[in-house]
Structures
1.
Amino acid sequence: PETRKIMRAELGADLMLLGDINDVQQRSLDGRTVSQYYQVNLDLTNLESNEKVWIGSVEVKKVSRDR
């Protein structure tokens, strides 16, 4: 705790990137097809003003089938 930087007085960093990754897996009724969904959400924040300068989101779907 004693080495932690105070907001708005941090040296070296101007921006902070935060985000999360979510995934959902679905199987078909016959069990032969699996769909994997991924969603990535990111926020880029200016540490001095606490303003979000960029917000991004990407979704990816991957499908695999048994033969």
2.
Amino acid sequence: MRQLLKWISYILAALVAAVAMVLGVVYWKSNARLHRVYHVTVTPPTIPTDAASIERGHHIAMTRGCAECHGTDFGGAKVIDDPAMGRLYGPNLTRGRGGLPATFGDADWARAIRHGVAADGHGLFLMPSADFSRFTTEDMGDLIAYLKSVPPVDRDSVPLKIGPVARILMLAGKIKLAADEIDHVNLTPAIVTPAITVEYGHYLAAGCTGCHGANFSGGKIDIGPPDWPQAANLTPYEPDGFVRWTEADFIAALRTQKKPDGVTLSPVMPKVFGAMNDTELKAIWMYLRTLPPVATGQR
């Protein structure tokens, strides 16, 4: 019996050592990615100072998900606090205590938003710059103008702590740094006019790809905790109920957080998208109707 217990203890010790070795490799490789330095050339847009442009920048900030991570006062907010995924808070973007340093300039704003790269050159974790990278020059300028006008908030930014599951997902290619996805050398701002057109809808719908996938087929959301519900399929895939929605259904769902059958949308779905104006929502709907049908989750 003692001999058996001894062998069991040896096996358990070997398993613990193997797990520790695997976790060590995961942490080492993921840290290497997190600490990679990106050298990007940044040309900041002209930053307007008139009230209309700043108000338009406010609209962009509130409808593109900025407040979801950084808080409605942009002093920082919780994104995820989960043992598996980690402690992820959007930093304080104001000039208050715990916010941006006095040296943070227009080029730093553009580098972070368009390229997903911090002022010191490292890639920003979970910053959806792949969605923002082709913002028009006007949108980028207006957004920065608004963010620079936000009143100071005294709130210390919570240090980033990335959990083991998030690190494994990084190495598996499920969670990607935007800085790795963006072609920084050949990146050019989009040229599009706000109107109810497929082109404008395509431009705006870039902000939906983080959860719904590049082809909008939905399914498992790789960037979230394992318990997050699947994203809806936004293509006209026949077995999915979305194919039977109308434009009015789509707009009402985003503004009321209710599907046509009365079921509440997933809590993961950002409520701020419902604050888009009629032109924006109708343009997105028009674009989604041009998508080919794709089976749910076949990204």
